[in-house]
Amino acid sequence: MKKLRFVYWQDDAFWLGYLEEFPDYMTQGESLDELEENLRDIYKELTSDTLPLVRRVGELDVV
Which InterPro entries does the entry mention (predicted)? Predict the structure, then answer.
């Protein structure tokens, strides 16, 4: 099982968030559990190679 980091916050009645690897793709849920499920769904879509032009975040080692 792969672990993914995500950023989230509560705004009134909704929980909002995005995956750190894909910050351009936000989602929401009425509970934190629903938000996490929606983030799993987004991850599946973004990594399925069916969507064009998916932007990602990477890490670069520099000297």
Answer: TTHA1013/TTHA0281-like (IPR035069)
- Give the type of residue at 50: T
Instruction: Report the distance separating Cα 53 and Cα 24, nearest Å.
Output: 11
Which of 54, 58, 57, 19 is closest to 36 using CA atoms?
19
Please give the torsion angle defined by the CA atoms of residues 32, 56, 23 and 43, in that order, rounded to the nearest 10 degrees: -20
Residue 63: per-residue pLDDT: 86
**Predicted pLDDT at 47:** 92
Q: Give every strand in the sheet of 22-29, ordered side by side.
A: 6-11, 14-19, 22-29
